[in-house]
């Protein structure tokens, strides 16, 4: 019998249930809304202790050996709970070191130091030294990971000259601009661009989580907010905003599962599936983020509802999706078809 | 926590997020592909009337001879008894081969037949099922009325019992292919005192019965897909009632969800292929300066979105047929998939016009697959529940919002 199962069950479900309650306790939406930068001082060491930085490494490298589908499920939870994006940057950066057979600093494993994402302003090279203007996302991180279609590189914060702080649109993260001048880097230019595809998939998973959370928040509010004597969800104009967000989030959720399986099982069209999932997740998160604010009305416009945080996170994560040539080519090439496996 | 260590189910199989066709299903795909390569008709399907009817019936007869009639029907009723996965494979391969779909036989095969199978008498089954499979008869649907469209339970077509007959009077509308149909599945108000959902009967109506007038409706796409049907004291034997008298609403609902599942699979497969053909077209056709339409940024952006969205639609159908659905019925996710499909199809069709450029005003032979199809496919956001009704249903049944209509 063919085996088709897109919904996490059993052990995969347990994995999610190990992550979600921690995030709910550490980063409840109400406190993120009240103070987006507030976080328990020991957050990083606590989650490091839980193995979150290394769980997707194989056991030989001291990890838990989660496969990429399980990594996707965890990142979907990160997105759902607006977890710090540096969780993923750190995990991917450690992966880069492991794949390059470089030592993994114990400060990273223990959460004393973390890795943030860096992203070129207008594209740039990956190599032993890095050049060009970048965003530093989570500007206080000790190291930064920069990923392009062609590969990935890791550099130390100390090696960067002056960085100029800029206000971040997503208030849960600090942001800076810096110009890299011959910055030494640990790098990988894997022929198969495995790390960049993995990052695209996992960012898409986070965006899917954002879309699911925002669409659920909208529907829940529409059930309890009463105007004209009934819950506002009884008005079609409001209900349809909720439905549009939810349908696109569900489509993204189905596709991200297929894309993750495609990567894990090395389907020939894995890259197309990932590029598709990224595009869908981006649009789903943006729609759900927008509609959630709209359904909340005046409360949605207020900072204290926290509804805005999903939309802002969407824009931040979108910045990290490679809309490079590889994804474009995969989505626009002439012959593709729908077959696999 | 490696994949190898994933939890084992009661049957000893791993339970994990996965997608793997079995060797049997892979071989099945090859079998379908080979059969279609030799047997799918090459000529274009006539757009209407008797030639279309004959084309669809001939294709059905050919499938019947090859053992491909009644894919989802159980073997005990003469069908092929395919699993959902194999049905999906069939639809994917038919779409890829650009082979015709069920055409005017879809009501017979997807709806009337399964309804008779599940609720009909032995006599009804013996008479009708084999004729449907053999490609001898066309069925149409007689559900909607001028004042009962999305609000189907509002039907008023009157049927009063006189000895062993129903005497039926009134009107139906939006009856696809009624002008070429032999039989009709007809919802009749047989007891107006019982309330909206009761007092309706599901009846087999022989379209040659005296008193029936069929008036085809010209559509915006220039065809005559739908008809109005008028009934003037039409005598229908009580032996042609399926299920109990006055229980027709439940009889109709048994198979409606079913039908949506199956047609959704075929719609999704076809739409995936339309997107691929559109991308190919955009690479072939050039603008006034000789540049491929696909190099236009606006068109390229839309095409990329369509391919990604088509992949999402396919993923939604995989979720529909997945093992996760075992205990649930395909109903609720089918509603999400059907809505996503309808809205995506509209966007794809609009891009089709953009890619045609100057020729978008033509209904000529080479542009028709895009221009006339754009017009015709407007049906897909209206028929079977308009997009707005689909959203109401999802809001209530899936999101749990208060009923809003």
CATH class of the largest domain in chain B: Mainly Alpha
CATH homologous superfamily identity of the largest domain in chain B: Butyryl-CoA Dehydrogenase, subunit A, domain 3
- Count the domains of chain B: 3
Structural class label of chain B = alpha+beta
Task: Give the uncertain stretches of chain A in residue-range form.
Answer: 337-341
User: In order across it, which strands form the biggest sheet of chain A?
Assistant: 6-7-3-2-4-5-8
* Biggest interchain interface, per-side counts: A-B, 69 and 66 residues
Low-confidence segments of chain B, given as residue ranges, are: 1-13, 326-330
Report the strand count of chain B. Answer: 9
Strand content of chain B: 5-15%
The rounded distance between the terminal residues' Cα atoms of chain A is: 15 Å
Number of H- or I-type helical stretches of chain A: 12
- How would a textbook summarize the main sheet of chain A? 7 strands, mixed
Task: Classify the beta-strand content of chain A into a percent band.
Answer: 5-15%
Spatial shape of chain A: globular
Indicate the radius of gyration of chain B in whole angstroms: 23 Å
- What is the level 1 CATH name of the domain at 194-332 in chain A? Mainly Alpha
Q: Helix and strand string of chain A, N-terminal first? A: EHHHHHHEEEEEEEHEEHHHHH
Shape of chain B: globular
Write down the oligomeric state. Answer: heterodimer
Q: Give me the secondary-structure category of chain A.
A: alpha+beta
């Amino acid at each position: 019998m063919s085996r088709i199962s897109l919904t996490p069950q059993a052990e995969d479900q347990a994995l999610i249930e190990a992550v979600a309650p921690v995030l709910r306790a550490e980063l409840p939406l109400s406190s993120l809304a009240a103070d987006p930068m507030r976080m328990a001082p020991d957050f990083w060491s606590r989650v490091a202790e839980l193995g979150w930085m290394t769980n997707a490494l194989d056991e030989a490298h001291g990890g838990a050996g989660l496969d990429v589908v399980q990594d996707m499920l965890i990142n979907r939870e990160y997105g759902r709970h607006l977890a710090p994006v540096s969780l993923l940057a750190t995990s991917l950066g450690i992966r880069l070191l492991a794949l390059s057979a470089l030592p993994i600093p114990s400060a990273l494993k223990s959460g004393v130091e973390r890795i943030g994402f860096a992203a070129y302003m207008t594209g740039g090279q990956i190599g032993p030294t890095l050049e060009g203007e970048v965003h530093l996302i989570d500007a206080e991180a000790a190291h930064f990971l920069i990923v392009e279609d062609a590969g990935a590189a890791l550099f130390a914060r100390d090696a960067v000259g002056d960085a100029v702080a800029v206000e971040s649109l997503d208030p849960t993260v600090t942001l800076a601009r810096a110009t890299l001048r011959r910055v030494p880097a640990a790098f990988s230019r894997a022929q198969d661009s495995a790390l960049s595809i993995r990052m695209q998939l996992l960012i898409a998973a986070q965006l899917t989580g954002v879309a699911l959370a925002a669409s659920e928040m909208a529907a829940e509010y529409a059930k309890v907010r009463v105007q004209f004597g009934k819950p506002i969800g009884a008005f079609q104009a409001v209900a349809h905003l909720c439905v549009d967000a939810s349908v696109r989030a569900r489509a993204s959720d189905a596709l991200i599962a297929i894309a993750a399986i495609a990567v894990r099982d090395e389907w020939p069209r894995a890259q197309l599936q990932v590029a598709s999932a990224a595009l869908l997740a981006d649009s789903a998160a943006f729609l759900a983020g927008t509609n959630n604010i709209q359904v909340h009305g005046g409360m949605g416009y207020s900072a204290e509802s926290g509804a805005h945080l999903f939309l802002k996170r969407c824009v931040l994560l979108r910045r990290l999706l490679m809309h490079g040539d590889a994804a474009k080519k995969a989505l626009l090439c002439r012959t593709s078809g729908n077959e696999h496996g | 926590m490696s994949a190898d260590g994933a939890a084992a189910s009661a049957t000893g199989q791993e339970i994990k997020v996965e997608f793997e066709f079995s060797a049997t299903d892979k071989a099945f795909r090859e079998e379908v592909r080979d059969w279609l390569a030799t047997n799918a008709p090459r000529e274009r399907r006539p757009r209407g009337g008797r030639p279309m009817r004959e084309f669809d019936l001939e294709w059905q007869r050919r499938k019947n001879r090859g053992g491909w009639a009644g894919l989802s029907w159980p073997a005990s009723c003469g069908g092929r008894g395919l699993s959902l996965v194999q049905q999906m494979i069939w639809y994917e391969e038919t779409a890829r081969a650009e082979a015709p779909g069920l055409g005017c036989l879809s009501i017979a095969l997807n709806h009337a037949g399964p309804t008779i199978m599940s609720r009909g008498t032995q006599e009804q089954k013996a008479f009708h099922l084999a004729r449907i499979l053999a490609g001898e008869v066309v069925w149409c649907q007689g559900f909607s009325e001028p004042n009962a469209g999305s609000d189907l339970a509002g039907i008023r077509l009157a049927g009063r019992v006189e000895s062993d007959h129903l005497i039926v009077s009134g009107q139906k509308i939006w009856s696809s292919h009624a002008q070429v149909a032999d039989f009709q599945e007809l919802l009749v108000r047989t007891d107006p005192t019982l309330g909206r959902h009761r007092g309706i009967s599901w009846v087999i109506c022989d379209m040659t019965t005296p008193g029936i007038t069929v008036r085809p409706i010209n559509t915006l796409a220039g065809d005559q897909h739908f008809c109005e049907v008028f009934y003037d004291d039409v005598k229908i034997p009580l032996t042609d009632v399926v299920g109990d008298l006055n229980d027709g609403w439940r009889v109709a609902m048994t198979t409606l969800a079913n039908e949506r599942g199956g047609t959704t699979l075929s719609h999704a497969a076809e739409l995936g292929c339309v997107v691929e053909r559109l991308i190919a077209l955009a690479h072939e056709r050039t603008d006034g300066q000789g540049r491929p339409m696909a190099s236009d940024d606006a068109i390229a952006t839309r095409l990329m979105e369509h391919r990604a969205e088509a992949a999402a639609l396919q993923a939604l159908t995989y979720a529909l047929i997945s093992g996760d659905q075992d205990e649930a019925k395909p109903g609720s996710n089918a509603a999400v998939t059907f809505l996503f499909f309808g809205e995506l199809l509209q966007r794809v069709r609009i891009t089709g016009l953009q890619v045609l450029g100057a020729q978008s005003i033509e209904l000529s032979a080479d542009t028709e697959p895009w221009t006339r199809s754009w017009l015709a496919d407007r049906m897909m956001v209206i028929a079977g529940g308009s997009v707005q009704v689909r959203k109401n249903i999802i809001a209530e049944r899936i999101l749990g919002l208060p009923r809003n209509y």
